[in-house]
Structure formats: C-alpha cells, structure tokens
Design a protein that fits this description.
Structural class of chain A: alpha/beta
CATH topology of the largest domain in chain A: Aspartate Aminotransferase, domain 2
Distance between the termini of chain A: 18 Å
Strand order of the largest sheet of chain A: 2-8-7-6-5-3-4
Oligomer: homotetramer
CATH superfamily of the largest domain in chain A: Type I PLP-dependent aspartate aminotransferase-like (Major domain)
Helix content of chain A: 40-55%
CATH class of the largest domain in chain A: Alpha Beta
Number of domains of chain A: 2
Strand content of chain A: 15-25%
Largest sheet of chain A: 7 strands, mixed
C-alpha cells in the first residue's frame, strides 16, 4: 500500500540514521553542548545568513511552540494566530497552559492570516476603549506552510512584519514543515528572509526527515533560553541526538533536497488530479494536497493508498489529505493517479 | 446630570453602609470566620433552598471567575463561554493565566449561548477524531444577565444543564448582576433553581448594591476551596467587610428589592423609548438598555445624562448603553425621556 | 476583653470611615481612575519623594505579593525570601501558582534576611556549575517589619540593594505593616529611602488603619501593570473604595500617626514586660511583641486579654503574640501589665 | 580515556539501535498508537505484575516529573521531596512552572527521605492551626536510586506508602536510573513492588540504555493523561521511537541486564577503592560512586579517567562522582583502580 497518510510515520532519512549509527558508541557532551549540536547551529546560522542568530534544538512541535511563546510573552500578553493554526486547535491548550491566550483570527482558505485581517484586528483592538481589560496582543504566530498547505509570499510576510513593528508584536513562525515551503516553487520565502523578518522561527525536523527535533532560530541572542527550555522539559540529556540530525540535515543541502522530493511528488499529484478534473479544498503548493474525491474515486483508492479523510460530504464525496514527504517516490504518485484513471 | 453610565460607580446601599458603620469599632474573627459571614452564608443557603450549599465570599468578579474555574477545572480542560462572555473578552486573560482555554462559541444577539449551539459544538467536538489533541471542554460558563442584558429562561438553563450532564461539564453561572435577573419579569429563573442546576454560581454584590463582594455558591461542599481562593489572593483578611454586606443584602429581601428598583427603572426607560420609536440592539429585560439613538437624540442627552457609547455608526447614530441600578429613580428616567421628546 | 490578638480584626480608622460615608452617594470614575485614587497616588508620590513613582492600589497582601512578582519576574526566575517570609509560608503557594519558585533562605531570629546570607547564597549559586539547571534568582523579597516584628536598618537595606544590583535582582519590599516600621524609633528606614532603594514596595493599608487596600509603589513607570493586575483579579471595579482610604491615610500624616500609636503601645508593653523580667522570642521594635510567658502568667491573662499562642513549651510556658495596632490605647497596655503584676 | 563522567553521554544499547535501524523504513501509527508502543506497554504491565497498569512513554526526565505532577496534583497542592531531589534542585523550576510548590524536606546523607522525617513533617503541618494558609501536601516524590546513589528498601517504601495513605498523598517515584536500583544487591525493591506501592512511577530509559524515553506506569487507568501529556509537549509524533526502545529494553530481560552491568562495575569500583582506604560521601549501592579522593589521587586520574568533581575541599581533596553505566566494562574499572595504586 502506498502511504500518503502523513509525513511523520516513518523513521528518518538514511543520512541521519547513518550519522546516528556512527555516533552511537562515542561519548558526547550532554545537554546540547556536544560537537554535533555546535556544528548544526553553525550551519543553520550560515543557512539563515545571520551570524548572530541564536539556535536551539528542541524535540517536538507542540513543545517548541509552547516553550518559545512562554519565553517571549509577558503574562498579560496573548498570541495572535489564524483560527486554524496548530496552537489554536491541536495542541491541547499548551499555550494556555503556560498562561497565554491564543487570539484566533479568521484565516483565508489556505489557513493563512492576511495582513488585512491582522491590521483590522489591531486597529479595532486599540480603538476599543476597553482594551486595557482585554488580552494584549504580544506576538504573531504564523505557520509556513500552514496546516492546510498554504504558503506565505515574501511580500505578505514583509507586510505582517511591518504590522508587528507598528504594534509592538514579536513575529514567530512555525516551520514544522518548513522544508516543503522552502522547496516550493510557489513561494519566494527563503531561510535568510525568515532570519531577517522573524524574531524567532523554527526549522522543522520531525516532519522533514528527522526522527524528532525542531531547530529554533532567534534573530537575537537569548541569554535565558537555557533555563526557559529546561523548565518546559524541552532539553534533551542526550542532546547530540538532535545535534547530529540537524548537522546531517544541513550538510550538502540535504534539508532542501528532502523538501524538494516531497514537493515534487505533491505537485505531480496535484497536476495529475487536475487533469482528471479533480478540485481541491484548498489547492496547495506544498507537500500536502487536499483534493475533493468522489465516492467512486475514494473507492478506487481503498486498499491501495493510505490517506486521511478530512471532511465527509453528504453525497459520498470527501475532502481527503494526500500527504507526500521526503520519502515519497514519483512512481508512487503515478500509481495513485493510475488507480483513479 | 443623571448618571446611567454604569452600575458600579457609586458606593453601597444605605443599609450596608449603616451595617459597616455599626460594625467598624467591633472586633471580628478574621479570614471569613466572622459572625457576619456565618450569618450571610446561612441566609444565602436558605435563599437558594439548599442547606448543603457551600458559600464563599470573594471580592470581585474577575477574581471570582478565575478562582472558581481554577478550582473546578483540571489542567487539560477548558471552559465554554459565549464569545461575548466576560471571561472571553474583558478579564485580561485571567482564565488563561491559570492555564485554561476559554472555548468561545457564538452567542445570540442577547449574548446568550443557546442549547442548540452548545449541543452542536459538543457533538462536533467528540465527532472529530483528533479531539484528544484539542482542549477538552470541562465546564460551561454562562452569565445571567449576560453582558448585553440578556436573560436565560428556566427552560433554557435546564436544557444547558442536561447537556452538561450528558457531556460531563460542570455548570458555572456568573451572576455579577444577578439581582437584576432575579427581579426581571422576563425570566422565571430563581435562586433555588440556580442552587439546583448550577454546580456553582455567584450572587453579585459589587453591581447590585455592595461596595464590593461576590457570594459564590457551590451545590456541594468544597473541602479545598479555602486554600484555592487564598492562593488566588481572593481571601480578605477583614472578611467581615464582605460578610456584613451580604448579611445586609440578604436581610428582609434587600437584594431582590435593589434588583427590582433597577429593573423597574430600566423597563420604564425601555417602554418610554419604544413609544418614541427607538429601536434596541438588543432589547433587554434587565437593568441595562441598549437603544440605538440618532445623532439628534444623542445631542439632546449630552450634558444631561451620563451613558456609554457602545457602537458609533456611520450616519451619526449610535448604540448606547443606559444602565439603571438599584439607586436609579423613576424621576430620573422620566427626565431622560423628557429630554428626548 | 482587651484585644491584642491581631491587627486586622476591626474596621478602619474613623477618618477613613468618615470619608467613605461622605463619598458613598457620589458618582466616581471606575477601575481606579477616580479622583480619590488620583489624589492618593499624588500624595504617596510626594511621601516617597519620587515624582516618577508609579502607584497602584490593590486589595490585599497575598494578592499584592503574587501580582507584583508575576509582573516583575520572567518564567525561569524565582524570588528569594527569608524562610519565614509570608510568601514562603502563609500564602497557600500563591507565588508558585503563577509559576515562580520561592527560594527560601535562612532568616535571623527576627525573620530578617541578612546581607551575609544573601551574598553567600548568590556566590554559591553562580559558583555551582550546574546553575543553568536551577531556578535563577530574579528578585529579592523582604518584609519590613518582618512577620516576627523584625526591622531592617537603612544600612542593611542599602547592602541588600547593592547585592541586588550586583546580581541583577529586583528588590521588592512587603510593607503590609509598614506604618509600624516607619513609626518605630528602632529603624531609620523612611518612605523616601524605600522609594529610592526598592524597585517596588507596598504601603500596607489592611493592617494599618484601612478596611482593605495595599498601595504598590514602583520606582519606575509600569506601562503594563494595568492588565497585569486586572488579570490577577486585583482591580476593584469600585476603585474609589481604595482611593479614598489611601487619600485619607496620606492626609495630615494620618498613616504615620496610626503607626506611631501602635508602636507606642507595643513598646510600652515591651518595657513593662521587661521590667517584670519577661524575655522575648524575639524582641521587636514594631507593633508585635513575642514575650515568653509562664503558665501562671498565661493564666492571669486568660479572659482578660486576647492574644495568639505562637509556640507552646513543655513546661507550660509559651511564646505568645501580643499585637498592638493603630487603635490600641495606652490604658489597655497598662491593664495588661497590671494583670501580670 | 575511560569515561565515568555520567550515564547519559553515549547512544543506546546495540539491541535498541538494531531495532531502530530495522524499523526505520516502515510505516508506523503515530502519537504512541504504534505496535511497538503497544508491545512495550504490554511487556511493562507484565514486568510490574499489574495488568491494569496504565503505561505511557515520555521523552525525558524533567518533562516526565513536571507532566506527571501537573496531572496528579490540584492547584493548591504541593509535592514533598527530599531537599536534594531532582525536582527540588535541577529542573529549573519545572514543577513550580506548572503552579505547584516543591515542599523540600531534609534528606539523609544518601539523598533519601526517611519515614520519620515525613511523619514529623505531616504531623507538624496539620498540627499548625494556620495550615489552611499553607501549601497542602498532595504528593510524595522520591527518586530511586536517589541523585546520590541512595536506595530505598521495600520496608522503607512500605512505610512511606502507609504515610501517604494516612495523609492522602499520592506516591510518585522517579526511576530515571531505575535499572541500577533493580539490579543492586543492596535493595529488595522490585518492579512488582513499585507497581503495587506507587500511584505512579517511571522506568528510566535515557540513563539506562536508551537514546531517550521514560516509561510512566500508573497503578490505575488515566482517562485524561493523553491531553495532559500532549499539553506539556511530551507526546512524540513519532512515538514508535520510544515504543521500539522500550520494547527492546523489556525483551529477554535486557533492562535488568543493562542495570546489572552498571551496578557490577560500580560495586567493583567501590570494593577496590575501599581496599585502597578511600572513604565515600556517601557510599552507594547503585551505579554512581562518590569517593573522597586526595589531591594526589585526583592527579593520578587526570587524563586517564573522565569524572565529575562534586565538592572541592580546602586540603585539595575532593568528592568526585564516578559513574558506571550499562556500557562500562570491568576492565575499565580495573584500569581506574590500577591508576590509583
């Protein structure tokens, strides 16, 4: 069976496994002070073109979101997010558990927060005389790609950044699937741009070829993020496990290569489905595709392809998620399309 | 100037002030163990017709909401509220500050949460396979009257209670303005009914004739609410200050009498405005009225009546709040109406 | 019966009650924006000789401690306190409830933290290579008078301040009983000195002549303390209740006068007890006296004087707390001493 | 150089790495619902001889401590710990960050909390009339082995359990190094005994042969631990990474075997050092040894052996930690002893 159900259900890219095997018997400094982590951070600083960037390696996405937000917000501040954002929906209230409200704004159909929506909210907030009694927006959270495969453009991010500057917000970008955004021909957002625009963002490992791990990149030095992430249980004793994976991911362009494979397969699938007359809800330029399949089409894929049903409709059709990843092969995509023809 | 701007900008009812003056020189037991508090609690238990009710006297509304919710929720639980609910909007994130998400659902135009909306949400929640990753609804918060003067009926509350039973939610009713609901001819909700239906509710003092104070009524004994409210800074050293006020409010039906005065004035105002062809947004059966006044009408009230502008409209008209209280006099209402004629 | 059991079991000083009665019928701006509060803050700024001081009126002591600390600490920081400090013992974990560890250090027999103890702790902390895994000290909490009636000298506070500067700590002084320290001949600490040395301190009302209320004085402007204290339920809707009390307390030197009365009585008591050969545990220069009374002496006071037993000893003697306050009269003290003669 | 510096600075046992390599290419169910995790849990239930035990796989120790305590405590409860306990010292305030005070009691020289100390504290707590204002003890935390290599006996644990029952405490045992306790000839505590006595404990992976991972064992079913640990960022998307490691650790007695190797080496070292007249601070029956070495002995080990200096003394001697682990070899121990002869 061809597995397009999700991008976090297999192990890691072979390069990472090889690095892990090679390092298994060696002694490493602990708690993130190992040589692998140092190298990984150096390479990431180079990749984001910011020698002052402060890089930290955490374990998973929810942990990273909650830990970073707890570190950058003050108690009376909340974080703005698209209503479909991961922190707003699927993290069991991790952000609220550290005391901060998620200020959910309407997203577009791609799960993106538009500068217009953000501007209208911020103007409205400060125009309301009762705003001192309300949760102060302290940060903006965006995911790129979004949970629905949506992609921001450099221009949109710049507009969001300008609004953050105007209203005193820190900009935090969730890059759990960042490889698939960086590799997409449909956005011009690059790592250096993120390093320039975001107060903090992270480079997702778990969904982009690693066993686990997310690399958090702060634009500026964070003297207290060590206790901040230790306190949230986000500091791994054997930090070299994260270090060696990101070291490998940022060696010889592997991270981008993995992303490209996932996106190439996803776009091949999108193209093929389009040619079959399939519509999308929404279209995605990233590794996740959300086609609307008829009952018959669904039937044809049964037992051949693993996928997730996103939304069942009354007529038997459904929006499904077909999720390519760094390990999906073009031949698998072709087989899926064949099954539908 | 006639003051209809809000119901918490003067001192207390004369009976309370007299009680305070009489008690000022006497020694009282501390931290809520005084005789006044004991008497007040006894009278409240009688008024709610529940001899097992556990009554606690706290200082203010936001404090009460956050303290009660922190005591009844587990860390992974959130509280459902109308999107216009006080905890969702105007408490600076007090509920989130203790770790719990406010799950905001669409309210009707009166600021009420309908049983239909609640049922649809709960069904949808548990129908979503990803719900274990989402914030579990643990309690339902309703305000009565709502922030917009809306009133629940006994039937509606019973339906909400049934849904709470079905889905394992505790029912918490914010009665910051409860006197004005109990006194309204437009709802059949009584104190004994609240004592029966709510796991916990509170009888507002601050907006209903007291200097400060909210009486929290739990349906069942709470062995640990003492440290729970001490921990939130809600325990007054001189607890007799709260005790004597609630003792006075629940002597000879004062609380209801104060409520009736506010409601009588508000309904007299509503009737008068209606006869002048004024519309409302929304109508209220409680002490707060939200008429839509034209630019000319607004002008006529200027310098004569204190009120709050709720929403300015492009044509110069505005939704305003005219707020009667226990100390508003019929003659004041008539003067307001005269000014508009 | 003469009541020396505590300093928060009667109402307020007559001047405050009169002000309350006079203001009860008038309309006041809400949430602390009233004229009384403005005047009180102005007077307090003058009293601390710091025109830039930012003054806020909160309701009670535990609330104030937890709210201030939540506002000035970052998540990974704790607060240093004497092990006998109120926040370390008697606030039901209010500080921890907002996420911060109380770092308890050994106090001297007066409940004071010595500069030597603090210096040794701070040196030891940063000398420990594992300190990044430990709770970072972010603030120093001292109470003046202490819970045991102890008093800091100006020199000691200056030493503590110097250590705070050296190690990046904010200095927070709990003045729940400050009137009795300011009035004591046994310390040279003044309000202007506190305004100079403390990042933030508070002037206790509840135990010093008010019904409730603590005036928090920040050395510098706090742009976000409004939501910070609203969020903790510490903002009173009828803020004028606090404003008028502090306005009265800081009119014509009332606050100091009330303090002086309490201290004069306490020292008269101490002198009398000493002349009877009574020892103390510890001596206090403040309004609380902790004499060690024999079984016979305890017996003589029974039914004549209200006091608290602090520590029963095997031989039937006990350390007791005899607590004078602004309303204790010299004649009462003499009667107590007569009973023991 | 022989590395005895710590037990978490290399990779995992070969069996685990082999399992990881074998599973790397396969598709696994996500978020802990994979077959490996199911098998691991089944094996652990068997090992603790409790078919109803509820087993969860988390990533690291600090995370586990904070997550479990947040799940089992109510807001007003604290957790009792030896003052030298990991949660009290070296977790950057993770427990306080979720709102709970660590109630630190004096440990014996092995870092153990004695039943006598616990009993005295609990009696004293409830004998103090002011206890409702203090943090209520809600759970007891013990580590086994302790941070100093101390070991509880079954009898001691039974006594602690009895006190927990008497005072309504949950018993939580931190088994970060549990393999080295189970393997020690100096304690009779077994996994089934822990399954019987502890409300919850965990079987440490990180320090006992795994790359990462701690297996939490609740005595009773926990219907809400899924959102509880998701909320704390402790749920791994690729949960099979933990599942396969614990599956391997609990196959053919590997976990105990790894523990035995560490303990055998440590006791061989202890014996050898004793025969050289070395004293300990303290002696340990577990994998960590804390000998007091003279300046000359320290010098002899330099460049030959990796170890941690625990406490430098004025005469040039030092308490050091020599830490054996599952991968230490007897020959390495002999070489260390040779260097000292």
């Amino acid at each position: 069976m061809i597995d397009l159900s999700c991008d976090y259900n297999v192990g890691c890219a072979p390069e990472l496994l090889a690095a892990l095997c090679a390092a298994n018997e060696t002694q490493h400094a602990t708690y993130g002070s190992d040589a692998f982590s140092a190298r990984a951070k150096e390479k990431i600083r180079a990749a984001v073109a910011n020698p002052d960037a402060d890089v930290w390696l955490l374990v998973g996405g929810t942990q990273t979101n909650a830990t970073v937000l707890a570190a950058i917000l003050r108690p009376w501040e909340g974080v703005i997010s698209a209503a479909s954002g991961h922190i707003a929906v699927h993290e069991s209230g991790a952000v609220e558990a550290s005391g901060h409200k998620v200020l959910a704004l309407e997203a577009d159909r791609f799960g993106r927060l538009s500068p217009e929506t953000l501007r209208a909210y911020l103007r409205g907030f400060y125009a309301d005389e009762t705003y001192p009694h309300m949760v102060r927006p302290g940060a903006l959270y965006v995911s790129h790609p979004t949970e629905l495969g949506g992609l921001y453009t450099a221009a949109a991010l710049r507009e969001l950044r300008a609004l953050c500057d105007e209203y005193g917000l820190r900009l935090f970008l969730d890059g759990a699937r960042l490889a698939y955004a960086l590799a997409s021909p449909e956005t011009d957002v690059t790592l250096p741009l993120l390093g320039e625009l975001c107060d903090v963002f992270y480079i997702g490992g778990t969904k982009c070829g690693a066993l686990c791990g997310e690399a958090v990149v702060f634009r500026e030095k964070q003297p207290c993020f060590f206790p901040a992430h230790k306190q949230r249980g986000a500091l791994l004793a054997k930090g070299f496990l994260l270090g060696l994976q990101f070291d490998a991911l940022f060696t010889d362009g592997l991270y981008l290569r993995l992303g490209r494979q996932g996106v190439a397969c996803a776009l091949r699938l999108r193209e093929g489905l389009r040619s079959l007359g399939v519509s999308f809800s929404p279209e995605s330029g990233s590794n996740q595709q959300f086609p609307v399949l008829t009952a018959e089409q669904l039937n044809r894929l049964r037992d051949k392809v693993g996928f997730e049903v996103w939304e069942r409709r009354a007529d038997g059709s459904a929006v499904v998620r077909l999720c390519a990843s760094w390990r999906t092969m073009e031949a698998e995509i072709d087989a899926v399309l064949d099954a539908l023809r």
